Structure formats: structure tokens, C-alpha cells
Amino acid sequence: MGAVLRWIFSLLIAAGSVLFALANRQTVPVAWSPLHDPYAVPVFGIALGALLFGFVLGGTMVWLNAGPLRRDRRHLRKTVKALEKELAEARPALPVRTIETRTDDS
User: Fold this and answer.
1) How far is the C-alpha of 53 from the C-alpha of 43, rounded, in Å?
2) R_g over Cα of the chain
3) Global pTM exceeds 0.85
4) For 45-89, how does the pLDDT look when each residue is reduced to its tens digit (9 = 90+)?
5) Fewest CB within a 10 Å sphere: which of 21, 30, 88, 95?
6) Please, what sign has the CA dihedral across residues 93, 94, 95, 99?
């Protein structure tokens, strides 16, 4: 169900972006520096570029903030592997009781 909602949401965002781009095709001058001539950029390019920049910046911040969690997870995974190895080595040393079964053949 979550994947279906994700696809529907993505399609709505894509359709909205296309409609926004079609409705705002006029160009506006954008000057990056007072020493250079301004560039003619479509309005939708500025708006969608700002959204893309914010999306990438937000994703980068989330990834950086999750760094300690990833480090802890790696450490815990190594600890679990070491403990599983220790347990596997200790199992053969444990005494094993055999239980004799009776058969009703006699």
C-alpha cells in the first residue's frame, strides 16, 4: 500500500511540475554578478531549480545527521557477528546428553 501511495504522490508532483512549467514559460533576467550580463532564464527554471536545490540540501543534511546512527549500526553488527562466532565455537564444547529410546519390539 505504501508503494502505491508513493507512486501516486510522485505522479501528482510530476504532473504539477509540468503544468507549472507550461504556465510559466516567460523568461526573466537573472544576474549572478554585477560584472556580467544577466542570463535569460524561464520562470519555471528558477522555481524548480530552487525546489531541487532545497531537496538536495535537505537530503544531504538528513544523510549527515544520520551518520552517528549508521556508525552505531555498524558497531552493533560487528558485535553481533563476534558474539555469534563465539557462540558457535562454544556449542561443541557443551556436553550433549543422549536419550535412549525404547522400542516395543521385545
Assistant:
1) 15
2) 31
3) no
4) 998 899 999 999 999 999 999 999 999 999 999 999 999 999 888
5) 95
6) negative
Residue with cell 543534511: 61
> Which amino acid is it at 71?
R
| Amino acid present at 38 | P
**Cell of residue 4, nine digits:** 502505491
What contacts 20, CB < 8 A, 6 or more positions away?
44, 47, 48
